[in-house]
């Protein structure tokens, strides 16, 4: 027999012998392996499932915390409160008090809005804005006002400030009647429109030496679109302007450290970067920021109307004031003028 | 259940292969189980055409991982070696009853150079083709063939030596 044949025979024989003597339970081994594999799979799936929530939370916080100078969440909060302060006359947000709830890639913003009537601040409404990422939905507004502005701004006609180039609608005659009949011992918030646009510094001429004894709260700025009450695309616009605080609260950008009209321009520029979001939050269908910024750059800041407040008796005096062309009454509150 | 039947067919081959590598019954049995565990985990993702070669490949990697793991436990090394000796120290009854011949064959194979060893184990002891063996050892087919040839020659001469001694 050759070596080769011997070799193969030897291997074959020993293999057979080995297999005969091998005693392994193949069913048990397979069952055990399968069971172990199943357990591993379940544990891995479980771990992945458990990781989903922390991962999403982490990504969400990262998303809102990053982007821009102070993070996306803070940028949106600033946009929302700025747009309310410049488009809602005499209405402001106490920025320290607003609440945000962050969920998976969404943010829920809740805050109160205030008006100053007489010498006191009154809570006049609530806003609830839901954000998906950095896109807000239309806000839910609730106002507690006796004379709220229309929810949808009317086409072609100004509702409270009348630009000098437009004639005063007939209904505005009734407003003086209201002022005449409001009892003494109340304080009145009134929207007054001027005969001619004036510089912000010249508003003091309206009540020289504080006669009548009224406070200016908010100034409506002439931005070119007010003549038609429409923007270049034919959408209705609402007044835009800025507040004046005698004793500015800490949270407002209009803190008198620089001229309020300068701050106003800065805010418009900032809002232009987030115009889509700002328009959603504003009541107007369009803010026409591009058009307005250009106009202000060319013509400077000119005031054509203002929100004033004072005792009913002092507001009545405005009827004979040469600067004041028309007036619309806002809220009336009990005496707090001290 | 089909796949399990296929696995059962190769169970003995795998056991013998892992025994040939580890020379230890318990290790071989554990590794067979570990091998099937790995196949159950990875089977759904892979499109396997040659089940036997694939099983052997998985078994080989299982063995390598196990060896590495045991190497890391340095204080235990001595104990392991003693244990191995114990389990491979066959009582006379065992030698009669059990696979004496294969045991001796494996002892002889393990005297070969490692690469020759593995090639012989794969091709001659477990009937894998050259391609399959080369794939498992991650060699090109020519160097696999030369390893196998040299290993086979060395093993044959050892067998002859022993037969001459016996006679």
UniProtKB/TrEMBL annotation, chain A:
Residue ranges that the Swiss-Prot or TrEMBL entry lists as coiled coil: none
InterPro entries, per database record: Sigma_reg_C_dom (IPR025672), Sigma_reg_N (IPR029101)
Pfam families linked to this entry: Sigma_reg_C, Sigma_reg_N
Superkingdom of origin organism: Bacteria
Domain Sigma factor regulator C-terminal, chain residue ranges per copy: 181-331
Domain Sigma factor regulator N-terminal intervals: 28-122
Membrane-spanning intervals of the chain: 38-64
Keyword entries, A-Z: Membrane, Transmembrane, Transmembrane helix
Record protein name field: Anti-sigma factor
UniProtKB/TrEMBL annotation, chain B:
Pfam families per the UniProt record, alphabetical: Sigma70_r2, Sigma70_r4_2
Keyword Transferase: no
Record-linked InterPro entries: RNA_pol_sigma-70-like, RNA_pol_sigma-70_dom, RNA_pol_sigma-M_bacilli, RNA_pol_sigma70_r2, RNA_pol_sigma70_r4_t2
Transmembrane segments: none
UniProt domain RNA polymerase sigma-70 region: residue ranges: 7-72
Keywords annotated in UniProt: DNA-binding, Sigma factor, Transcription, Transcription regulation
Residues of the RNA polymerase sigma factor 70 region 4 type domain: 103-155
Highest taxon in the source lineage: Bacteria
UniProt keyword RNA-binding present: no
NCBIfam families (alphabetical): SigM_subfam, sigma70-ECF
Name by which UniProt lists this protein: Sigma-70 family RNA polymerase sigma factor
